[in-house]
Design brief:
With 142 residues, the protein is mainly alpha-helical. It contains 6 helices and 3 strands. The protein has a 3-stranded antiparallel sheet. The longest helix is centred in the first third of the chain and has 26 residues.
């Protein structure tokens, strides 16, 4: 297999892995989907627990349209609150609501067992290298 075919196989495996992980997250994290979990986590880690839609999309790997599609139902069930910017919708902000903070806390109780189940045992340096490689691929793809 030439290197271009191996690269394609790698990306196809990444895509398959993402689909599998998304399924595991939604089954195991109190009904939170992978994107919902990522959004809550990024909001929790942000200053004032608030981010613009643009920044949130960048951190979560979502398009602006995907961010909006995710946030509307999350607001309806009290996980986040939204502050609209009529002049520039991309500069609207999402903030972590108390219900979202609780849902994230509950999900974090389940995340370690899920990671132990899904990740094969590996040295911390190997995991750090894998994270660095994925970051580099993401940077190149932007």
């Amino acid at each position: 297999m030439n290197s271009s075919n191996q690269s394609l196989a790698f990306f196809l495996r990444l895509s398959k892995l993402h689909a599998i992980l998304a399924s595991h997250f939604s089954k195991r994290l109190g009904g939170l989907g992978f994107n919902e979990f990522a959004i809550l986590l990024h909001l929790n880690e942000a200053p004032n627990q608030s981010l613009s839609y643009t920044d949130l999309g960048s951190l979560a790997g979502l398009s602006p349209a995907d961010v909006t599609r995710q946030l509307v139902p999350m607001e309806k069930i009290g996980l986040i609150s939204r502050e609209a910017n009529v002049e520039n919708p991309r500069m609207s902000h999402a903030s972590l609501a108390p219900g979202g903070a609780q849902k994230l806390t509950d999900a974090m109780d389940d995340i370690d067992p899920l990671m132990e189940e899904l990740l094969p045992p590996m040295d911390a340096q190997v995991l750090q290298y894998a994270n660095s490689m994925l970051d580099e691929i993401a940077d190149r793809a932007k």
